[in-house]
């Protein structure tokens, strides 16, 4: 089969022919229809320090996918050939305290497809049946292919009650933008999204009803005054990984405000902890998606009016993957989807 492989410990990915994976008794084989390119895939493409420490070579990359089940292992009795699906790319152990408590997303042994294990940028993917998420007919393959990052957005946005709240999202990348759409969908009052990239802010406005703020040229305090917020934002969703953004969030939050942190800062970042203490701010780190409560909620929201389709800005047949990665690296794209059919 064709697959996008990190074939050598160097920059780039190669389209290669590799064997179709053999499935075990508890697995399914999925024929891939569409895949999303993630920021993680760009790290792997660039072969940066993190990728060199994390990714074995050779490896089939990719973890955002939708497809159709074409083979089921002998112990799998709840999934049928022909079922359209996406799936959780985090492969978890079942023996940790957290897993045994049903908090699968907190299992410390988690391994990622396309990062530690063979991935989804291929014509076929082997996946434990446990990880499969069936897709309803109303959700097209290209949306199925971005449920992993939508899940990050949903998990983060639903960390705190947003009904009637003023929400600040820092970072208008695909995940920040989708989180803004989710915040609106669940009934936030004002949703303000910041970035320093005007293309990203323009895209945010196309996808959902938000107040975009370019913090390179505008003062966030002026915006809270214009929106008649008396004391500041109630909830912050940090989705940039940028230290300046986190500082601005802490500054503009109300006393007792709440922050969910999804963005990954590069290395250790200085934080003004006394400010956080004196403002009595609650901070929650967010990793991945809740398995499978986030999947349940995001599919329910997609079936009931949540629309993130405009966050997909580029579509390429998989043979043009180079253009897809270039679009992602340009900083001008939202989600880029590769079509495998
Ligand atoms: P992205 O890199 O596409 O978007 C980040 C955005 O932040 C960019 O548009 C950038 O211009 C913007 N930004 C930079 N400096 C800023 C500043 N000072 N203020 C406001 N915005 C600023 O990333 P993404 O794919 O949307 O993912 C968002 C973040 O979440 C990334 O940091 C990513 O690594 C992280 N992530 C974490 C998890 C997890 O499990 N915790 C999972 C997926 C992604
Ligand atoms: Zn991803």
Automatic annotation (TrEMBL):
SMART domains reported in the protein's UniProt record: PKS_ER (SM00829)
GO molecular function: L-threonine 3-dehydrogenase activity; zinc ion binding
Matches recorded under InterPro entries: ADH-like_C (IPR013149), ADH-like_N (IPR013154), ADH_Zn_CS (IPR002328), ER (IPR020843), GroES-like_sf (IPR011032), NAD(P)-bd_dom_sf (IPR036291), Zn_alcohol_dh (IPR050129)
Provenance organism: Antarctobacter heliothermus
EC number of this enzyme: 1.1.1.103
The name this protein goes by in its record: L-threonine 3-dehydrogenase
Domain Enoyl reductase (ER): start-end pairs: 12-338
Enzyme class: oxidoreductase
Cofactor: Zn(2+)
């Amino acid at each position: 089969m064709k697959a996008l492989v990190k074939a050598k410990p160097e920059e780039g990915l190669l389209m290669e022919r590799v064997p179709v994976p053999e499935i075990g008794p508890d697995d399914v084989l999925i024929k891939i229809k569409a895949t999303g390119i993630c920021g993680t895939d760009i790290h792997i493409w660039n072969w940066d320090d993190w990728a060199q420490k994390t990714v074995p070579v050779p490896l089939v990359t990719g973890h955002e996918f939708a497809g159709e089940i074409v083979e089921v292992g002998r112990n799998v009795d709840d999934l049928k050939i022909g079922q359209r699906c996406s799936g959780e790319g985090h492969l978890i152990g079942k023996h940790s305290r957290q897993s045994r408590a049903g908090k699968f997303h907190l299992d410390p042994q988690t391994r990622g497809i396309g990062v530690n294990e063979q991935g989804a940028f291929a014509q076929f993917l082997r996946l434990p049946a446990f990880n499969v998420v069936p897709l309803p007919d109303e959700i097209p393959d290209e949306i199925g292919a971005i449920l992993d990052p939508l899940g990050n957005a949903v998990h983060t946005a639903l960390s705190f009650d947003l009904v009637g709240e003023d929400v600040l999202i820092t970072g208008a990348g695909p995940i920040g933008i989708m989180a803004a759409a989710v915040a609106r969908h669940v009934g936030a009052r004002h949703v303000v999204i910041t970035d320093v990239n005007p293309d990203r802010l323009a895209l945010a406005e196309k996808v959902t009803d938000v107040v975009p703020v370019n913090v390179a040229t505008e003062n966030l305090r002026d915006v809270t005054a214009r929106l008649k917020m008396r004391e500041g934002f109630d909830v912050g969703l940090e989705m940039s990984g940028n230290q300046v953004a986190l500082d601005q969030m802490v500054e503009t939050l109300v006393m007792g405000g709440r922050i969910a942190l999804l963005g990954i800062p590069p290395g250790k970042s200085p934080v003004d902890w006394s400010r956080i203490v004196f403002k009595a701010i609650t901070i929650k780190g967010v990793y991945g998606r809740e398995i499978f409560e986030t999947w349940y909620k995001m599919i329910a929201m997609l079936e009931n009016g949540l629309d993130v389709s405009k966050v997909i800005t580029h579509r390429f047949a998989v043979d043009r993957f180079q253009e897809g990665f270039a679009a992602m690296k340009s900083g001008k794209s939202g989600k880029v989807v590769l079509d495998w059919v």
